[in-house]
Specification:
The protein has 837 residues and is α+β, with helices and mostly antiparallel strands. It is built from 36 helices and 10 strands. Strand 7 and strand 8 form a beta hairpin. This is AP-1 complex subunit gamma.
Length: 837
């Protein structure tokens, strides 16, 4: 016995009455089988009922694709009941990813040309919902005709369909320009709201439309003034605000029309002032209108007094109880800091109070705005507030807060002592959250302030004695004690309280750092080096230091073990040179680029090797190595031999006019610029390695907001070898602060044209940005074809080298160059980062 098909209401009741999901699936499967059978039989009278049930099944998440063709049949039917269900099915079951949707184009065109409003409304709704670009191009003229139909019902739907068409196919904007001017005179709320939306879409996508609609600015101002003064209609008022949706739409359109246009901005200035002063902010609808007014004022060329009024409105928003309104106010003020810094400064106390908000998003925005408000006049007060916030802020904000305080102190520090005190307090409070370059910056700052050496070492010693858990603080303190330990023991400093420290106490404190389980390997390295330096600064016996150093000669950490072995060797074999090697670190000039250092190293290595050349046959033995680097054949001409005479060698060393000309310099390139963020590339070619190119990436920020979480990534083809050095930081301070640099080392043994792809990711003005761009350069122009390799025995005098507190000592080792049978013996300074010279 065949079970009859259920009606839609009965199907809904049976599905809702199912106690388990299995029962629900069984009911739906049975009914879908009946629906398929009915479709195969071709019953025209009950087809719309079967499709209605199938649409309900589709809404529950079950497959209903077999009803797509039935939708086309119902749309082509002359009966309204069939068309209604057919169009509804087309909106639910069809989209532009399926070719079947193109089959209803002729049916929609025929229905649009009919005079039945209900059918025209169905066709327009379907077209605005799932119309593809092809359908929009074919039906644009029919929709344009309906924009001027007498029926307001059809015109409203036609306007909304035109908005969809412009979003899909912006080239159709010329078709809808003439009707829009007439539709602005409409009194119907729906038509006027749709027309404003349509004009906004046209202006955003077409410069010609933007120029065309600037003529209607007075009319838009008149409409908005009527809304503010007399109201549009009481049925569209919300919480006493006359039609806020229409007001917001008009304000957005005015913002687009007045941007970078003096005449249009002048026309709307008085109206914006009227809206800003007469709108009630006690309700959410009024706040929405007022916020849109503020955005319009800040985006057009408004009067200075009007901009101050906009900032004051945002200041009132900060006092609102609604967290969303406060968040919007903080975000808007952050965008306005650069253009209206003095006006935003008036609300600094309120912004600082928002730091204590329990909501994480509010406190983060308040922190960003507070850091942007710091300048030379308020740096002391703002830094004190930020340091107070740092002590109690959530852990996820400590890194940003600490980095912001350090950047502000570096830019606006009134005195060096205040700068040092500020960094010390940050390191004491949140040392584990500071940036990686904080230790290097503080050591460089202390080293450059000779008059503050005694003060700094006492402050750091006292902080270290209280807490050894903050690793950056411990590293700076160990460095400072190692450099200026003699000043610590003198006990006389006018700027601090009298502090008497014994040698045994200093050594015990450094040993405590070495033995602490909280100390990182790098921190132990600082402490071990500090002990080594104190061996020349303390007046007592250095046996205790020698015993501690010898203990770490068998440490499991390779870096620490190597340091200890080197220091033990210095005690045992070169004790007479220890005092000269462990002298105080010389002052390093700030701002020196890493590229210059790499180039200088390469040049010095080449000069030292060139001075060792004695005979021409020895140089000819290195042709195989030259072939490996240059990729040339064995028939290639060898490089011209150097003059073996002492005078010729001296000319080559000193680069006098008689020497070979240096390789041509490569100009710097600016590869990226957006909203104040610039990325420049500078190139250096090491003379001793023609296939190597050093690229220094320098990022600067001239905007009014900090660029945070800055990451630069690079990629090259497989024929290249790329090595990315660690960047100098990940935050670019606003208004031309300290740049971020990163070194790229690219080896190109095949001398192929260089293809370099860069990807930048960063946060700017509260938004996450990602940029990818590629550059092509002829690498043969960036490398120096000449190559001179030398060999021999080099006798190197003992010199003092300071680099990241790593002591280098004299050693001797025999090396064999790859690809040759030549051996050379060289005395050199051994450093952990360099395996060979």
């Amino acid at each position: 016995m065949v079970v009859p098909s259920l009606k839609l209401q009965d199907l809904i009741e049976e599905i809702r009455g199912a106690k388990t999901q299995a029962q629900e699936r069984e009911v739906i499967q049975k009914e879908c089988a009946h629906i398929r059978a009915s479709f195969r039989d071709g019953d025209p009278l009950h087809r719309h009922r079967q499709l209605a049930k199938l649409l309900y099944v589709h809404m529950l998440g079950y497959p209903a694709h077999f009803g797509q063709m039935e939708c086309l049949k119902l749309i082509a039917s002359p009966r309204f009941t069939d068309k209604r269900v057919g169009y509804l099915g087309a909106m639910l079951l069809l989209d532009e990813r399926q070719d079947a949707h193109l089959l209803i184009t002729n049916s929609i065109k025929n229905d649009l040309s009919q005079g039945i409003q209900a059918v025209q409304g169905l066709a327009l709704c379907t077209l605005s919902t799932m119309g593809s670009a092809e359908m929009c191009r074919d039906l644009a003229t029919e929709v344009e005709k309906l924009l001027l139909q007498p029926s307001s019902y059809v015109r409203k739907k036609a306007v909304l369909t035109a908005v969809h068409m412009i979003r899909k196919v912006p080239e159709l904007s010329n078709i809808f320009l003439p009707p829009c001017a007439q539709l602005l005179h409409e009194r119907h709320h729906g038509i006027l709201l749709g027309t404003i939306t349509l004009i906004t879409e046209l202006c955003e996508r077409s410069p010609a439309a933007l120029k065309h609609f600037r003529k209607v600015v007075p009319q838009l101002v008149k409409i908005l003034r009527t809304l503010v003064t007399t109201g549009y209609s009481t049925e569209h008022s919300i919480s006493g605000v006359s039609d806020p949706f229409l007001q917001v739409r008009i304000l957005r359109l005015l913002r687009i029309l007045g941007r970078n246009h003096e005449e249009s901005s002048e026309t709307m200035n008085d109206l914006l002032a009227q809206v800003a002063t007469n709108t009630d902010t006690s309700r959410n609808a009024g706040s929405a209108v007022l916020f849109e007014t503020v955005l319009t004022i800040m985006d057009i060329r408004s009067a200075p007094g009007l901009r101050v009024l906009a900032v004051n409105i945002l200041g009132r928003f900060l006092l609102n109880n609604d967290k969303n309104i406060r968040y919007v106010a903080l975000t808007s003020l952050l965008r306005m800091v650069q253009s209206d810094h003095s006006a935003v400064q008036r609300h600094r106390p309120t912004v600082v109070e928002c730091l204590r908000e329990p909501d994480a998003s509010l406190s983060r925005r308040a922190l960003e705005l507070s850091l942007a408000l710091v300048n030379s006049s308020n740096v002391r007060a703002m830094t004190q507030e930020l340091q107070s916030f740092l002590e109690s802020c959530p852990p996820d904000l400590r890194a940003d807060c600490a980095s912001g305080i350090l950047l502000a102190a570096e830019r606006f520090a009134p005195t060096k002592r205040w700068h040092i005190d500020t960094i010390l307090r940050v390191l004491t409070t949140a040392g584990i959250y500071v940036r990686d370059d904080a230790v290097a910056n503080l050591t460089q700052l202390i080293g450059g302030a000779q008059e503050l050496h005694a003060y700094s070492v006492r402050r750091l010693y006292s902080a270290l004695a209280e807490d050894i858990s903050q690793q950056p603080l411990v590293q700076v303190a160990a460095w400072c004690i190692g450099e200026y330990g003699d000043l610590l023991l003198e006990g006389s400093c006018e700027e601090t309280e009298p502090l008497q420290v014994e040698e045994e106490e200093v050594l015990a404190l450094l040993e405590k750092v070495l033995q602490s389980h909280m100390s990182q390997p790098a921190t132990r390295g600082y402490a071990l080096t500090a002990l080594m330096k104190l061996s020349t600064r303390l007046r007592g016996d250095s046996n205790r230091i020698r015993q501690v150093v010898s203990i770490y000669g068998s440490c499991l950490d390779v870096e620490l073990q190597q340091r200890a072995v080197e220091y033990n060797t210095l005690f045992q074999k070169y004790d007479h040179m220890r005092a000269a090697i462990l002298e105080k670190m010389p002052l390093v000039e700030r701002g020196g680029s890493q590229v210059d250092g790499e180039a200088k190293e390469s040049k010095e290595a080449q000069l030292s090797e060139t001075a060792l050349v004695s005979t021409e046959p020895q140089a000819s033995k290195l042709l195989d190595l030259l072939d490996l680097l240059d990729g040339t054949s064995g028939d290639a001409q060898p490089p011209p031999p150097l003059d073996p005479s002492p005078g010729g060698a001296l000319v080559h060393l000193l680069d006098l006019p008689g020497a070979p000309p240096p390789p041509p310099s490569i100009p710097n390139l600016r590869v990226f610029e957006r909203e104040g963020l610039q990325l420049n590339l500078s190139f250096v070619r090491p003379s001793g390695t023609p296939a190597l190119l050093l690229i220094m990436v320098t990022a600067t920020n001239t905007s009014g907001a900090d660029v945070t979480h800055f990451i630069c990534q690079a990629a090259v083809p497989k024929s290249f070898q790329l090595q990315l050095q660690a960047p100098s930081g990940d935050t670019l301070p606003a208004q031309g602060g300290l740049p971020v640099t990163q070194l790229l080392r690219i080896l190109n043994p095949n001398k192929a044209p260089l293809r370099l792809k860069l990807r930048l990711t960063y946060n700017h003005f509260g938004q996450s940005v990602q940029e990818i761009f590629e550059g092509n350069w002829d690498f043969s122009l960036l490398v120096h074809q000449g190559l001179y390799l030398t060999h021999g025995v080099a006798k190197v005098r003992c010199i003092q080298v300071h680099l990241e507190q790593r002591l280098l000592f004299i050693s001797s080792r025999e090396h064999q160059l790859p690809g040759t049978t030549l051996r050379h013996k060289t005395s050199y300074f051994l450093q952990p980062q360099w395996a060979q010279l």
